[in-house]
Structures are given as C-alpha cells and as structure tokens.
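User: Sequence in, structure out. Go.
Assistant: Echoing your sequence, followed by the structure tokens.
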Amino acid sequence: MARAPAAWLLAALLAGCFHAPAGGGGNDDPPPSLGDCTLFPADNVWNTPVDTLPLDPNSEAYVQTIGAGKYLHPDFGSGLYEGQPIGIPYTTVPGSQKRVQVSFTVDDESDPGPYPIPPDAPVEGGPDSRGDRHVLVVDRDDCVLYELFSAYVQPDGSWRAYSGAVFDLKPNALRPDTWTSADAAGLPILPGLVRYDEVAAGKINHALRFTAPQTRRAYVWPARHYASSLTGSQYPPMGQRFRLKAGYDISGFSPQVQVILRALKKYGMILADNGSSWYISGTPDERWDNDVLRELKRVPGSAFEAVDSRALMIDPDSGQAR
C-alpha cells in the first residue's frame, strides 16, 4: 500500500530539495550475488539507490570534517603494499565445512560459534598482519556470512577474535541494537566491498563501505553501533550514507573506474568504520590494475554529499528499504 510521505519529506519535495535524475527513479538492478547466494534481498538498504534522496542537513559539515580537500582512495588492489595484500579478502565454503570454536574478546556482542572457518581462511593483510585482520567466510550452500575482526587461528584449528558476527543473507535482519560486528558500525563488511567480477561485468548494484578519521558518538539506520567519544554535530555518525554528486563529470576516467563512480552516484557509500578519509573498501585481486585504480585519487571529498536516508526506513530493526 502506498504511504503518504512524512512531513519533513513532503516539505523537501515542495521546496525542490528532492532531485530526481533524468529518467526518473526506481531500480531494476538485480541484487549482488556470490554464486547462488544474493547478498541480501533486492529491497535491502545496501541494494537500494539513494540518487533521489534529499541531502542531510549536515552534509556540508560532514564533508568538511572528513576532508573536502582530501581525495577518494581505493583501499584494495593487486600485489602487495608493504608486504601485505591490498584489501579485505573473503572465501566461500560448502555447507559441510567443519565448524570450529571461536573465542571473543567482546563476547557479549558477538554471535557465538561454532563457525565454518577453515584454518587456512585468508586474513586481511596476510597471516602476519598487525592491522584489522578481518576474516570473511560465506557458506555458499546455506547463504550465511561469517565475519571476524582481529582474528587469529589457533594451533588446534579454532580461532580467537576481538568480535564476530553471523549474517543470514536471505532476510533483511539487522544485528541487535547497540551491538558491534566485525565492523565498528555493527554492519556486515562483504556487501560493501568492491569486487573485481562486478567491475568487470560493468555494474555494481550496491552501496560501498568507507571510512572516516573522526566519527560521532552516534549511529543512524542501518548501523547499530558507534565507536567514538566525540559529540559535535560536525562529526558524521556511523551508518551515514554519502553519494557522489550527480553533476560530477566522470567521462575522463577509465571504464573500470567509471563503473565504481557510477555506483557511488546511484548507491553511494556507507560510513562503517574509523580510518583514513574517503577510503573505500574492496577485495584483493591480482586482476586489478593498480595504475587504473589510482585514478580514483583524483576525486575530491568536495564531490560528495551526505544524504538523508530516513525515507527508506520501514522498520528501525530491519534492513528492508522502501
């Protein structure tokens, strides 16, 4: 059933603040997938366009705080950087994969094991990394995602991690309110990664994950957790959605980079963790051309704007979007 827009949205429409691109809104894109598993339903917030949403009232302040004069950065690529693979890897396993125990530092906000994580699962940054050490595993038969933060395999094949989360990829469920995940915002990581196969196919049908150096002690839907003590309104909250401005000219970029930039215009990116300014996450892949990816560093922070996603929310405890 169609619903009348909320008063704030109606005011924005009447004021002309709600800009639809040429050709109108709507979304005919299929949801992203891995094998036979979709990465959440088509109507999930990760897979919902934001190109027609109104601006967040604090958009300019957020962009200035993150860095209007700083530039987009691909936090992924091929080869090694300082001896480490570039990006956040993932692996898939069959439903028959042996489950192992995982012990958590933050066990009161982590989903208990066992997890189907093999002892040789790829670790972000490699086995000797001192960084975030994310581990992402998809059960490709049951379509369930398992993610760990600061993960270390133990001699007996079990794992130790700071935190962990399990996401059933079939429904739109969010984590319990106030819970972290393997990410600071309490969100899944894999659905927001730039993957080579998507770029090679010519289209990314989902929002991307990105980081900012300073965030607020707050979170907005669909995030469930914050990771800051800062309270100023100039600091963006976890879960804040941004998009590349519709008028930003991408014609001078390589075709692969244009795929990423078109996704940033249509689906935008979600603030998911504290880190460097405008760093977008992706998977390491030897097929990436790092020289091409460096073109992203020509896009300034001033080319982005924060959007108000409240019109998409149906239920604050669900990732389903209008």
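User: And one key feature?
Assistant: Residues 1-25 have pLDDT under 50 and may be disordered.
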